[in-house]
Structure formats: structure tokens, C-alpha cells
Design goal:
By secondary structure, this protein is an alpha/beta fold. It is built from eleven helices and nine strands. The radius of gyration is 18 Å and the shape is globular. The mean pLDDT is about 90.
Length: about 260
């Protein structure tokens, strides 16, 4: 039987321009349900722009975006988001538990009291990412890895079906990276989907099963074994790619482990 369920994220003919200069151009792809998707490409390729356009945070020049077959506004409650650390005001006077509780604002509504059950759920999410003991610490006093875990917990508490993550592995320690990978795999085991902007090409075959190669346009997308090839990487990165041998070795290791 053919699976007719709509894609968690479907992008068609998407173009975004800043001051009339295209940043992403005529992008289109569908990602499979229950996949871990790596979105990769050089700096300035439009990766963060793509996620922001999906979430209606920036205007689109053209294109259609559907989340589980619906426009963003109708499906946004099914999406959790982990932003870039650089986009967060870390001096804002809130602690880690407050940040995670903010993930429940759609359920809470504005200006309504946060009840014990909401804080319990936020604490459970902090525990899942391994920093429940830091719940009362102000976010500016957390390390980079702890800050990233806090925003991952905020996304988890939403109990979403699709997670969009903008460079969650950037500038984190090894233990935080392992924790994020395990969370991603746990999400996948429960049928959730995650689309993750990622820079470390060597770990793409280990962390993801689907990849989108982007450099303003879509170079390739599909299962890692099919789309994450030396030829496609050269098209995506051009002369800036210096890790092809290491990437190829990582792919061979993955194949041997399967």
C-alpha cells in the first residue's frame, strides 16, 4: 500500500530575497515522516533563512510551505524550534526553568498563571537533557552547552511532531553533543521528525538518515546513502570543501556498521 500521509515538511518553489537579492532560490523538497534530516551547506547558503521562512518569521518572495499538509499557521502547534544560540538575549533575567516553561505558552495562554503541573513538565524536560540541577540558574550563568540543552528542553516540552533545530551542535562540549544525538534518536524512535542545520560533515552519516544539501538552491536531497556523495558535496561546497577524504571515510565506517 502507498503511504498517503502528508510530509512533515513540504517546501515548493521557495524564494526568499533580502533587498531584492535572493538568499534562497526556487527551493523544493519533502522530508519523510520519522526521519532525522541534516541540512548542510556552506556559510551564507541560506540554511537559517530556510527555517525562518518555514516558520513565517521572514517574508517569502514566492513559494508554498506545508507542515503535515497544512499551512504553517494551522500546524505550528505541532512544531518545536531550537534557535541559534547567537540569536538569544542571554542577559534576559530568567532562569533555565522559566525558559523551558515558555515552551508551554500556547497551552498556558498569555497572562495566565504557571501551575505546578506545568513546572513539573518543564523539570522533566530539563531532566531529559541532563540539567535538572540547574533549573534555578540564570541563563547567562550557564555554559554554552548548558544553554543549548535548555533550549532543547524548551522544544521537548512542547511534545511536538516536527522539530526544527538551527545549529544545535555549534560550540557545545562532547557530552552535550552526545546528549543531543541521543535525544534525536529517542524522538525518531517515537515517530517524530527532526530537521537540523549541521556543519560537521564528518558526522552527517552517523547522525542523520536523510540530508538536504543547500547552497542558495537545492543541490540534492534524499537518503544519506544516496544524496551525501562526493560529487554532490563538491557541487555544494566547491573549492571551499577540504574534508572530502574524511567524509568519505566516515561514510565507509557507517556502511560497515549497518
Amino acid at each position: 500500500m502507498t503511504n498517503s500521509a502528508p510530509s512533515p515538511l513540504s517546501v515548493s518553489d521557495l524564494t526568499v530575497a533580502y533587498h531584492r537579492k535572493p538568499v534562497v532560490w526556487d527551493i523544493g523538497f519533502d522530508i519523510p515522516q520519522g526521519s532525522l534530516v541534516g541540512i548542510v551547506g556552506p556559510n551564507g547558503a541560506g540554511k537559517s533563512t530556510l527555517l525562518k521562512a518555514v516558520m513565517d518569521l521572514i517574508p517569502r518572495a514566492s513559494g508554498r510551505i506545508e507542515v503535515f499538509g497544512l499551512p504553517w499557521k494551522q500546524a505550528r502547534h505541532r512544531v518545536g524550534y531550537v534557535p541559534q544560540r547567537e540569536s538569544v538575549d542571554w542577559d534576559f533575567p530568567v532562569d533555565a526553568l522559566d525558559v523551558v516553561t515558555m515552551g508551554l505558552y500556547r497551552e498556558l495562554g498569555w497572562f495566565r498563571p504557571v501551575r505546578r503541573r506545568h513546572r513539573d513538565r518543564a523539570m522533566e524536560a530539563l531532566d531529559r537533557v541532563g540539567i535538572a540541577d540547574l533549573a534555578g540558574r540564570q541563563i547567562s550563568q550557564l555554559s554554552g552547552g548548558q544553554q543549548q540543552r535548555t533550549f532543547l528542553a524548551r522544544a521537548l516540552v512542547q511534545d511536538a511532531d516536527l522539530y526544527l533545530m538551527d545549529e544545535p551542535f555549534a560550540a557545545v562540549d562532547a557530552s552535550t553533543e552526545r546528549a543531543i544525538v541521543e535525544i534525536l534518536r529517542e524522538l525518531q524512535r517515537t515517530g517524530r521528525t527532526a530537521a537540523v542545520i549541521h556543519h560537521d560533515l564528518q558526522t552527517v552519516p552517523e547522525y542523520f538518515d536523510y540530508v538536504v544539501l543547500l547552497n542558495m538552491r537545492i543541490v540534492a536531497h534524499g537518503p544519506v546513502a544516496e544524496a551525501f556523495t562526493t560529487e554532490n558535496l563538491q557541487k555544494t561546497y566547491g573549492g571551499r570543501l577540504t574534508l572530502l577524504d574524511e567524509v568519505s571515510e566516515a561514510m565507509r565506517r557507517r556502511e560497515r556498521s549497518m
